[in-house]
Amino acid sequence: MMNYEDILRANGGICETPAYVFDLDILRDRIASVKKKLSGNVILCYAMKANPFLVAPLCEVVEKFEVCSPGEFRICEKAKLNMNKVVLSGVYKSKEDIQYVMYAYGGQPTYTIESFEQYRLLKGCARKEKIQISALIRLSSKNQFGVDKKVLEQILKDTDNDSHVRIKGLQFYSGTQKRNFNQILSEIHSLDAYYIELKKNFGIHFEELEYGPGLYTSYFNNEDEQDEIVLDEFAKALGEINFQGKIVLEMGRIIAACCGLYMASIVDIKETEEAKYCIVDGGIHQVNYYGQTMAMRTPDIEQFPKRPDEKFRYNICGSLCTVSDILAKQFPLSGAKIGDILIFKKAGAYSVTEGISLFLSRDLPNVYFYSEKEGLRKVRSAQPTDIMNSVIYD
Ligand SMILES: Cc1ncc(COP(=O)(O)O)c(C=O)c1O
Q1: Over the stretch 324-378, which tens digit does the pLDDT of each residue have?
Q2: Are 211 and 162 in contact (CB under 8 A)?
Q3: Ligand 1 pocket check: which of 250, 258, 352 to mutate, most ligand atoms within 8 Å of Cβ?
Q4: Which among 16, 38, 222, 351 is placed 20 to 30 Å from 167, CA to CA?
Q5: Residue nearest to atom 2 of ligand 1 (CA)
Q6: What would the pLDDT profile of 241-260 be if each residue is shown by its tens digit?
Q7: DSSP class of residue 52?
Q8: How many domains does the chain have?
Q9: Contact call for residues 317 and 279 (beta carbons, < 8 A)
Q10: Pocket of ligand 1, candidates 48, 173, 210, 346: which has the most ligand atoms within 8 Å of its Cβ, to mutate?
């Protein structure tokens, strides 16, 4: 169990807010517990868009990393990630970017194919580089990503006579925070059936299936915590399909969410005829809970320091110029004071990356890693954003 006082006061200092703190002990425990549930042919692929800061800490403990843009790729290079672990994904890969990766790392990454055009581009670049690449064809889930079965089968026929692209299997992802577990079951069963069909019709024996289940993470108070049960059922269902090859699970949220804390300090307290308000030095541009719209639901928040005083209910609001910058409504705080820190839990996934962080040109938060062994370590200082929102005068 995390002791928040230890974290905030680690190394004799105090965490400078607003900040994200990623607890690496919790992250590693999470990976170990997810892996324990999965059988031997199932490996993890961390979808780094959930939180790119976790690439370096996960380098050694996760087998694959889903990388969707040149920027994400550069983060992996800086983290010295073994390129055999990279799945170069994303709906659009430019010729220059593909050429760079192939020139620098050859056939080490796995490449995903998102269209016939992108297939042609990958094949052309591989031929020019005189290499063979391994690829996954992304099967569409009725949106702009991937290809339908007709195009998928055209690509398969084409690769039959090509030595530069080797298709390892299919990739499939249809969305995040799936409440309906039956949708996940139905997806794995239809992928399994499609593999059988492809074997029958084309004699194709795929070695791999890369699947992103979009498993649900519960964020809010009064929510029935089903996360572990769902994970158990999912692992069981995977063990029951016909496909016996390697199953690569692309996951972001359920890996990253639990290790992250978002810390914001109370900077003003006031009362109007309507309500009591706490203004904090962060806001909705920095912390993001899927499904929280306008603070209709309350995440897990803790006040520091803890006070024995009477509790009053406050609307906790950020520092943006919009009425929608509400982090929690009618949240009980004990003797709230300016300078108190509010700790928002389960903020490890999609907060760093999905917030409207350039709105109002406020600084990006500090980022800390925490572990019991190393204490609190600042890995990125607050960064100004005005330079991104203004003309550059030489
Ligand atoms: C292709 C792909 N795979 C995996 C993920 C991770 O999804 P989640 O965070 O729900 O596990 C995403 C998220 O957008 C994605 O686009």
Answers
A1: 999 999 999 999 999 999 999 999 999 999 989 999 999 999 999 999 998 889 9
A2: no
A3: 250
A4: 38
A5: 173
A6: 999 999 999 999 999 999 99
A7: G
A8: 2
A9: yes
A10: 173
Structure tokens at 132: 């063979």
What is the spatial distance between Cα 291 and Cα 273, in angstroms, rounded to a whole number? Answer: 29
| CATH assignment of the domain containing 144 | 3.20.20.10
CA quadruple 65, 364, 354, 235: dihedral positive or negative?
Answer: positive
Tell me, yes or no, whether 47 and 93 share the same domain: yes
Q: Is residue 388 part of a domain?
A: no
CB distance 261 to 303 below 8 Å: no
φ, ψ dihedrals at 72, nearest 5°: -60, -40
AA identity, residue 243:
F
pTM, whole model, 2 decimals? 0.96
Give the CATH number, domain containing residue 361: 2.40.37.10
> In the chain, which residue ranges form alpha helices assigned H by DSSP?
4-8, 24-37, 55-58, 70-78, 95-105, 116-129, 149-160, 181-202, 227-239, 253-256, 351-354
- 291 & 211 share domain: no
Neighbouring-strand partners of residue 197? none
Residues 233, 369, single domain; the answer is no
**Site residues for ligand 1, CB cut-off 6 Å:** 47, 49-50, 66, 89, 173, 176, 212, 214, 250-254
301 and 366 assigned to the same domain: yes
Within a domain: 387: no
What three-state secondary structure class fits 64? Answer: strand
User: What is 275-341 written as a DSSP string?
Assistant: -EEEEES--TTT---TT-TTTTS-B-EEEES---SPEEEEEEE-SSSSTT-EEEEEEEEES--TT-E
